[in-house]
Design goal:
homodimer; 386 residues; alpha/beta; TIM Barrel; 2 domains; nine-stranded parallel beta sheet; three-stranded antiparallel beta sheet; 16 helices; 42% helix
């Protein structure tokens, strides 16, 4: 069933870049938009008040994690995920497929569904298209995602094709199972880095008529140029009239490159995760706040940044908090990084609206140096579990 | 030199309980007051904004920790500790004596001072009365503490007496070394649980004429009844016209018992530390928020609590955050516990002002069940390093 409360309107095209507005039961979202990730019902270290202050309009949570803890029943009984976490804006949930594969807890995968072992207590669980949809409906979120099968794009075309075909069958079952008129349901296009498979998948999935379409199976090991090429190719394969969501992306440069190719929605743990490890965004690239040169940096990280962190604290203080492993450190860094990404999205939207996105994106990409591989891996893991 | 910016006025006596106002360069503090502890220049997990919101009027930081990291030079160069941490209210610093003993990093102790090994990198450092005062002056805090020698009160009278005598010599040197007219200096009375020694120490220290007096060497292993007895005895030994600060206390019941015996100022890591381990204060005692019964507690912890946590979240959500080791968990718990303590201090002050402190304290102590020893140790350590 399609959601009566959901809608998308494309306001302006600038090249392939799209500026639109997505209506949900919990309010409107201007697109392109980035969704901060609240995996377990909390954007790590931030209060809902701070999420609003950094400019988040929609967040993503995770049906898999919430199913395991605290349990769907509990959240349903308390009146849904919005009530549970006291977030008043829209929420999209991931179906759980990605976690089952990425957490390596997969036990069995067949046409019925996926059986996995809980990463918390080792118990066995089965996710099917039907119960995944039911869980997301009971969570009361604004946008549910179909259960899909994910394969790293370097696994060979046969595996990618099989996963795509299973994703198609599951998408049909998700569509049939979905009964909430309060909730939108997005389909997921698979097909790895093959244009042929992407074409087949887009055709199959869009024929089912979902409220929006996600590009799945990217940012999972393929090269950047392959990723951009597929996103670019998808533009013509997806309807203009519905939102397009690129799952698991991303970095500032990837967001700009993807908007340029027609994407409307993003989610990624990157800005919040690297923040907790001391990597902060600036207009020229990510910096390591723990580097010795920042010990005596007696200024805000970015003089013109309007985030709470830059408005109130010097880099020297944030450096000290990280060195001392203070709990305020990941929080101040998270606030800055999310405000940076939200500022980027705002700039992107206004430049598309004014028809100046191309020069804006060239300007941004010209200044912003993407993170090199060494730093990338370092900041992905350094200080965990903070 | 006495501070020209510092003053204390006793407004009302109710039995031995005192309600007063302490003037500092960074504003006035109504007493009795509790100082949240910002050991390394941050009250763990809270922003300065939140500290203000919970009602903190003065905080405590630590010269020993700041000396080792980020260093006194750095904080002086950035314009003092207030600037460094962006806290606009008064700050008192501990001299560092307590940490040298409690962190077990003591190498040598003689009349000159105390040599210790850094708990961070193992380097050797000497704290003398003179440099401890100099460090605190350069931090730019409102109230400095004399360097003292601390001995657990069960170590035998001879050791306690020797430590007291050294504390006296050091107090003279601190007083001589102190040159800031911007900063108050408090003397510390030692003497363990011996009335004779406490009498000698109070006489010696008060003769030096400090801006305020601390009761040191309590809450370090003696029985509660010995602690209350000594606090009670101190009331007559200390001037009425200066603030009295009981170092390292404490729990809600200890605060009430000590105010009853004439104490004006308190500091303790307890409310913030146990919060990070899931122990939250209520009017009837501390509760373990991770206990199974709280999993489905769909209400705030205290219905009439005005803290951000109780105003916005159910116990079930806080329980979930702790179970999931989310960074928001220690923060929400810290906000609640500090608001609880600040509410207690506010009630104490208004009841002294109205002359009803005795019945208020009986009522509070009648309802509030102190934490038993098992829970106490459990919540002191459970989830560290969160």
């Amino acid at each position: 069933m399609s959601s009566s409360k959901f809608g998308f309107k494309l306001i302006k095209l600038d090249g392939k870049a799209r500026q639109g507005i997505m209506q949900t039961r919990h309010g409107a979202v201007l697109t392109p938009a980035f969704m901060p990730v609240a995996t377990q019902g909390s954007v790590k270290s931030l209060s809902p008040t701070e999420l609003t202050e950094v400019g988040a309009h929609i967040i993503l949570s995770n049906a898999y994690h919430l199913y395991l803890r605290p349990g769907i029943d509990l959240i349903e009984d308390i009146g849904g995920l919005h009530n549970f976490m006291n977030w008043k804006g829209p929420i999209l949930t991931d179906s759980g497929g990605y976690q089952v594969f990425s957490l390596g807890s997969l036990i069995d995968l067949n046409d019925e569904g996926v059986t996995f072992r809980s990463h918390i207590d080792g118990t066995r669980h089965l996710f099917t298209p039907e119960n995944s949809i039911s869980y997301q409906e009971r969570l009361g979120v604004d946008i549910a995602m179909c259960l899909d099968q994910l394969v790293a794009s370097n696994k060979g075309k046969e595996l990618v094709k099989n996963a795509m075909q299973r994703t198609h069958k599951w998408a049909e079952r998700c569509k049939t199972a979905h009964s909430s008129s309060q909730q939108a349901l997005f389909g997921i296009v698979q097909g790895g880095v093959s244009k042929t498979l992407r074409e087949q998948s887009a055709q199959f999935i869009t024929n089912l008529e979902f409220d929006g379409y996600a590009i799945g199976g990217l940012a999972v090991g393929e090269t950047k140029s392959d990723m951009y090429k597929i996103i670019d190719y998808m533009d013509n394969l997806l309807p203009r009239t519905t939102p397009r969501y690129l799952m698991g992306v991303g970095s500032p440069e990837d967001i700009v490159h993807s908007v340029m190719r027609g994407v409307d929605l993003f989610d990624c743990v990157l800005p919040t995760r690297v923040a907790r490890n001391g990597a902060l965004f600036t207009q020229t690239g990510r910096v390591d706040i723990m580097a010795p040169k920042y010990k005596r940096w007696f200024k805000p990280l970015e003089e013109d940044c309007v985030c709470y962190t830059c408005q109130n604290f010097t880099v020297a203080y944030i450096h000290h908090l990280f060195k001392s492993r203070e709990l305020l450190a990941p929080r101040l860094a998270t606030i800055h990084n999310l405000k940076f990404i939200m500022g980027l999205m705002k700039n992107i939207r206004s430049h598309i609206a004014e028809g100046t996105f191309q020069s804006y994106s060239q300007d941004f990409l010209g200044k912003y140096t993407p993170t090199n591989e060494t730093s990338r891996l370092f900041h992905k893991n350094r200080l965990s579990p903070i």
